[in-house]
Amino acid sequence: MLIKRPGLLRQMAVFLYDGLLMLALLGFATFIFVWLFGDATQGWAHLALQIELWLVAGVYFVYSWYRSGQTLAMKTWRVQLVRVDGSQATIAALIQRYVLASVGLIFFAAGFIWAWIDREHCSLHDRLLGFRLRLNQGASDD
Predict the structure, then answer these.
(1) Are the beta carbons of 126 and 133 closer than 8 angstroms?
(2) What is residue 90's DSSP assignment?
(3) pTM for this prediction
(4) What is 19-65 written as a DSSP string?
């Protein structure tokens, strides 16, 4: 299956745009958490807030990828997540992608930096799980 891939600059734009959207979403989720539970700078509340934020982001990404293969940023930049074999991505596979991407992000973004050395500009988590980013119709590569 021939996949027209987005260039690294487009992928970086998607990453940055998704980051800005996450700031807004996670800021709102933090506001709700603090409103309900109070100070979240220490103890159980601190850990609970971190877990909540990771889960909120996960729900956003997994739901977006499952519904259309695109987050809002990916729609804007005409990039879509697809399976290499052309099959529909399962929720379980998308959760795995989110978890592996999170691990790659924790380790100094190594999973994403991998795309700079990969021959297809593919992140490490996508390479391992059989996903690719595809450039949608009407979009020209960087």
Answers:
(1) yes
(2) P
(3) 0.91
(4) HHHHHHHHHHHHHHHHHHH---SSHHHHHHHHHHHHHHHHHHHHHHH
Of the candidates 1, 15, 17, 8, the one whose C-alpha atom is nearest the C-alpha of residue 141 is 8
Q: By three-state DSSP, how is residue 131 classified?
A: strand
Whose tokens are 């940023």? That residue is: 73
Under 8 Å between Cβ of 141 and 6: yes
The rounded distance, in Å, linking the Cα atoms of 107 and 30 is: 24
Q: Rounded to 5 degrees, what are φ and ψ at 82?
A: -135, 160
Structure tokens at 141: 């590569």
Residue 64 CA to residue 72 CA, distance in Å, equals 8
What pLDDT shows up at residue 88? 94
User: What confidence tens digit (pLDDT) does each residue in 37-68 have?
Assistant: 999 999 999 999 999 999 999 999 999 999 99
Q: What are phi and psi of 83, to 5 degrees?
A: -85, 145
Q: Are 60 and 28 in contact (CB under 8 A)?
A: no
